[in-house]
């Protein structure tokens, strides 16, 4: 859940709330939107705030914490780095790929509630991945779309045909 995403939806559905910005308080919504409109689909991610760990070690820790899979560092494949939030934070993100199996599952994932994380792991069937990526009704980051496209171009063609 992101407040900014939620507020953009409030503005889209109830522009009158933002037309009174010169007043001390915004008008109260009589019919508030459900919290779900502030929820987005994202890749597993984390902040690089452990200087004693490599990017790969941090990524493996995030996969365990958020998704519940214990992935060895040697199983990561570095895809690329890119900038996001360039108008606000200019964050640099590094994208990795890892294949996981049921045997690698060691927990439920879900993130750290004490850090404000409430994460639901979502599995998208391969045959639905591009439909998911381009579905504008499902709020997602550009990283999700890029990762699905990368997968379709680099991994899917090498998979056995059933």
Largest sheet features: 2 strands, antiparallel
What's the tally of helices? 4
Task: Give the termini separation.
Answer: 38 Å
At CATH level 2, the architecture of the largest domain is Alpha-Beta Complex
What fraction strand? 5-15%
Radius of gyration: 19 Å
Q: What does the overall shape look like?
A: globular
> What is the CATH C level class of the largest domain, in words?
Alpha Beta
CATH homologous superfamily assignment of the largest domain: Nucleoside Triphosphate Pyrophosphohydrolase
Q: Largest beta sheet: what is the strand line-up?
A: 1-2
> Low-confidence segments, ≥5 residues, pLDDT <50?
none
Order of helices and strands: HHEEHH
Helicity level: 25-40%
Mean pLDDT: 91
Count of spatially separate domains: 2
Beta strand count: 2
How does the helix and strand content classify structurally?
alpha+beta
CATH fold type of the largest domain:
Nucleoside Triphosphate Pyrophosphohydrolase
Descriptive overview:
It is built from 4 helices and 2 strands. With 162 residues, it is of the alpha+beta class. The protein folds into 2 domains: 1-23 and 31-39, no CATH class; 40-158, Nucleoside Triphosphate Pyrophosphohydrolase, CATH 3.90.79. It has a two-stranded antiparallel ribbon with strand order 1-2. β1 (77-84) and β2 (91-97) form a beta hairpin. The longest helix has 13 residues, at 55-67.
């Amino acid at each position: 859940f992101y407040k900014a995403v939620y507020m953009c939806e409030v503005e889209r559905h109830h522009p009158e709330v933002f037309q009174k910005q010169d007043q001390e308080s915004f008008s109260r919504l009589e019919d508030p939107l459900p919290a779900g409109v502030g929820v987005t689909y994202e890749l597993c991610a984390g902040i690089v705030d452990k200087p004693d760990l490599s990017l790969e070690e941090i990524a493996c820790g995030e996969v365990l914490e958020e998704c519940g899979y214990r992935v060895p560092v040697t199983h990561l494949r570095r895809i690329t780095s890119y900038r996001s939030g360039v108008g606000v934070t200019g964050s640099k993100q590094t994208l990795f790929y890892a294949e996981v199996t049921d045997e690698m599952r060691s927990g439920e994932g879900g993130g750290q509630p004490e850090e404000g994380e409430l994460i639901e792991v979502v599995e998208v069937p391969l045959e639905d991945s591009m439909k998911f990526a381009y579905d504008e009704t499902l709020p997602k980051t550009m990283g999700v779309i890029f990762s699905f496209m990368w997968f379709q171009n680099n991994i899917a063609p090498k998979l056995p045909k059933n």
